[in-house]
Specification:
The chain is of the alpha+beta class and about 525 residues long. Helix content is about 25%, strand content about 30%. The protein has 14 helices and 29 strands.
């Protein structure tokens, strides 16, 4: 399958699968809450479409964890264990959910037709019927998204809402690794049973798992130069990894840590940080780069590394050596810049002018009807804005939101009475939302933007990076921007302390070099 075919397959919708009368939904061999919830969501959809549908899993072990057995029982999930997969043929369509047909973590069951719905990176090309979205925190979110596309009334099924909520809760380490705005949208929209969620979440750790956590803490590898720790745990539930890493971060001298184990198909890991110079979500992405996926919050994050991809890239490297080496590389490869203390090196950079193209912008005061302080959710995170401040923001075509002091805004941009072009948002992966402080409802930020045109004074200096840089901008001394080799370090012409990071393509799209 070429890249275009892959991109097309990622957009597969559920109505493309309605031509089959018999549908089998298969979870991976050690189904967790997310896999079960995702499978249940698909089961409900196809059942209500009048299909002959079943939900199953295979592998060596039955589901026995207390929280999962309670989930299946209390929510009436018809999950079946297939002890002898070859004895029951799969007629019609087989959908693997939260896994990929032919991958190492799922028993391969022959079927007439195959579809894949998963939130992990592509491992196996087995069919054109695929929907992969590895940027999501859970497969439950992906299934919810697909159900929303079909206008399926998820909100009317409280058991389904509870399952999807718990799937996201567990796969994002109790929401501590929650970062994607679509995950947040689902969490806020679901109709779920709070009492059952409380029951499930308090049935997680057994005495055996408590023993695993204790043994793991005794086998800690510590790096004194960078004050990080790495622990290789025995196989256990991902929540136990989070418990170990939370405890580890309480130790004086441990500022960041990673705790991981093997789950058959790869390595599941948990990351923690308590210093502003390291964002846990960024570190988790770095650890899994090219061989898996990672994400979460600035303090708590996690990820998954595919064993297949790992062994292809590092065939002779032991996992403990990999995590220790990769952690050291992370600290070695980034220079930290505090913009308040340094100026942009003008002699090393080039001067650029903003292209004369429409730019969406937002005045903080225009959101005052939603409250004195409102939250805006973007793909990069959530931003709180005081609507009483005299401040503007620019909304790039990528969905990025950048603060601009009012004085500077009026110097570099000119407001114009033009509507937002329909195509302006076409390249946004997620259109930012703003939350109404009165009733909690969400609104598209595009409802409040105005259009502007860059003035001749909108000029910058830019320098291509040769290595990684973390820069703390003058407008936020607690949060850094990350640049990799090939990105650009940029500064406003009128304030050389006002430095930030700009990806190369953004710079070329939005600015033109001056002679």
């Amino acid at each position: 399958m070429d890249r275009r075919g892959e991109e097309k397959s990622r957009e597969m919708m559920l109505d493309e699968l309605l031509g089959y009368d018999r549908v089998t939904i298969q979870c991976h061999d050690n189904p967790d809450a997310d896999a079960i919830a995702s499978g249940f969501g698909l089961y409900c959809f196809f059942r209500d479409q009048g299909k002959d549908v079943r939900l199953l899993y295979a592998g060596k072990n039955r589901v026995r964890k207390a929280n999962l057995t309670l989930m299946v029982e209390k929510l009436g999930i018809p999950l079946k264990y297939l002890a002898h997969p070859g004895e029951e043929p799969v007629d019609g369509l087989l959908i693997t959910v939260d896994c990929q047909f032919g991958a190492g973590n799922v028993t391969k069951i022959p079927a007439e037709e195959i579809a894949v719905i998963d939130h992990h990176p592509l491992e196996v090309i087995c069919t054109e019927k695929m929907r992969l979205q590895p940027n999501l925190g859970s497969c439950a979110t992906l299934v919810w998204t697909m159900l929303q596309e079909m206008h399926y009334p998820v909100e009317k099924n409280k058991n389904l809402g509870t399952a999807l909520y718990y799937g996201l809760f567990m796969d994002t380490n109790q929401f501590s690794e929650l970062s994607n705005p679509v995950d947040m949208d689902m969490r806020e929209s679901l109709n779920f049973d709070k009492n059952l969620i409380s029951l499930f979440r308090n049935s997680n750790i057994s005495l055996k798992e408590l023993e695993i956590a204790g043994v793991a803490l005794l086998r800690c590898n510590y790096n004194d130069d960078y004050q990080f720790a790495v622990i290789h745990s025995q196989p256990c539930d991902p929540n136990v990894l989070g418990l170990i890493s939370d405890f580890l971060l309480q130790v004086a001298g441990v500022n960041t840590c990673v705790v991981y184990n093997e789950d058959g198909g790869g390595y599941k890991f948990s990351v923690r940080s308590c210093i502003r110079e390291v964002n846990a979500n960024e570190l988790s992405e770095y650890l899994s780069e090219g061989i898996g996926s990672g994400g979460g919050h600035v303090e708590k994050a996690g990820g998954y590394i595919s064993m297949k991809l790992y062994e292809e890239k590092y065939p002779t490297l032991h996992s403990e050596a990999y995590f220790n080496n990769r952690m050291t590389q992370y600290f070695d490869n980034f220079e930290i810049v505090y913009a308040k203390e340094r100026k942009f090196p003008v002699t090393e950079g080039k001067k650029y002018r903003r292209r004369k193209e429409l730019l969406a912008c937002l005045k903080a005061a225009d959101l005052a009807e939603l409250g004195n302080v409102v939250s805006i959710r973007t793909e990069d995170g959530t931003m709180d804005i005081d609507t009483r401040q005299d401040r503007y923001f620019t909304l790039e075509r990528t969905g990025e939101l950048h603060p601009v002091p009012a004085e500077r805004f009026h110097r570099i941009l000119e407001l114009c009475e033009l509507p937002l072009p329909e195509e302006y948002c076409s390249s946004m992966g997620y259109i930012p939302r703003v939350k109404d402080g009165r009733d909690g409802s969400n609104h598209l930020l595009t409802e409040y933007v105005r259009m502007s045109m860059p003035a001749d004074a909108f000029c910058i200096y830019a320098l291509e990076l040769k290595r990684g840089v973390k820069i703390f901008p003058i407008w936020d001394e607690d949060t850094y921007m990350t640049g990799r080799a090939g990105d650009y370090l940029v500064a406003s012409e009128d304030d050389l302390h006002n430095m930030f990071i700009e990806p190369a393509q953004n710079l070329l799209n939005n600015f033109e070099e001056m002679a």
